[in-house]
Amino acid sequence: MTSIASWFHNEGHDSIWVVGDSKITNTSSMLIDIGAKIFSIPLICKGVGKSGFLDSTFLETKIGLAYAGSSLVGLNVQAALTTVFANLGGTGIAPSMDSIVEFSKNIIKSYISTLAVSADRGALCEFSMFGYCHVDNELKMYHLKPDLSSGMFDIEIITYLESEVDNDFVLLLGDKKHEINEEINNKRTSYSSDHILWQRAPQTVLKEIVQTDKYETVGGHIQMGICDSSGFHPYSTLNYVKGEEPKAYLSYLGFHTSGDSGQIGNCFVNINGMA
Q1: DSSP string covering 133-171, please?
Q2: pLDDT category of residue 235 using cuts at 50, 70 and 90
Q3: Which distant-in-sequence residues (6+ apart) come within 8 Å of 261 by Cβ?
Q4: pTM of the model
Q5: Fewer CB within a 10 Å sphere, N or C end of the chain?
């Protein structure tokens, strides 16, 4: 499985933070520990330009997507949405986040339904999506999860707004939800709610779980991203070289992205980093 945590964060400015692990397992063993589960999805909308074609960009930003469950479903949903949302046409009016998520729901439902024919419950997958809504002018977080309560398969959408949730709200996907939520709450008891370490408690807890291999289904490396009014931005993590502290390097999914390891021709990997 995996563990993904996302929450509204007010360190300097309004934002949504998301953090998760990179371990992918099947029912009996680990498959890989460098699996991508948190994604930046381009949102590009074009209108009719002087040429008469849809070549005049009126919105270019990014939204966030994370999944827990079937990697076959999660990765294919990410690939489909990346292509679709990077190629939107319109009349100059941005799509709302609600409409983006509603479209995504249909894609998710189609993939899970198709795979379930052969994989049954192994096709189940839940998602979180987050982005700045250019219609309502606010950050929004969504939980899209399989719903079998009616006897028919559907995808339930739950919308979260910062103004409507408690300040300690954390949306958890994947495995060990109860245990991880308790660990976050316990971590926060050591600080006041305006303290930076109270704000970052979900990140701290996930890091500790990954580093200690506390749970069999959660591990590998830390992934994280931050969503604000400018879009969704992936982050690399600062890792210390064991025995050579304070020597450190930036890592994305366990790959070194600083120094010579991050050189790509005359360019270099430029993913923001965080300790």
Answers
A1: ETTTTEEEEEEEEEE-TTSS-EEEEEEE-GGGS-TT--E
A2: very high
A3: 249, 255
A4: 0.93
A5: C
